[in-house]
Design brief:
Blueprint: E1 2-7, H1 13-19, E2 33-34, E3 42-47, E4 50-59, E5 62-67, E6 75-80, E7 89-94, H2 102-123
Length: 132
């Protein structure tokens, strides 16, 4: 299953990478709690779904995050410059299931909405976005 959320802010992939680090997860979501010290690309986190290793990878257009031990292989990207909204940030989350309970789908949608609100706050600051 896949889910999309458009964040109506202008920025660059470099700014996404600078702003969204494992050291400052609160910039990205109020639903991810850092449980340990991050290394270069992973950190232990707590979430509504339990405790996991969160990985962070640089990809074209921004970043990919994944819950490494998640039985649903939950992963999401934070990118800009591509369809469906090249002038905005696109959140794209996937799980390796074709169907899930409506309650799980609602939790995913809430998670993406929380990220959208956090990213709007971060990238609408004058020092963070792209301004003409």
């Amino acid at each position: 299953m896949e889910y999309f959320k458009i964040v109506n802010v202008r920025t660059t992939e470099e700014k996404i990478r600078e702003a969204l680090t494992l050291e400052n997860l609160e910039q990205m979501s109020t639903q991810l709690i850092q449980l340990g010290q991050p290394d270069e690309r992973e950190v232990s986190i707590g979430s509504i779904w339990g405790e996991f290793t969160l990985s962070r990878d640089i990809i074209r257009g921004g970043l990919r995050f994944a819950l490494v031990e998640c039985p649903n292989a939950l992963a999401w990207t934070v990118t800009t410059g591509f369809s469906p909204a090249p002038e905005s940030i696109v959140l794209h989350l996937t799980i390796n299931r074709q169907q899930k309970k409506p309650s799980f789908t609602e939790e995913i949608e809430d998670f993406l909405e929380d990220q959208k609100q956090c990213l709007e706050a971060v990238f609408n600051r004058k020092d963070a976005g792209v301004h003409g």
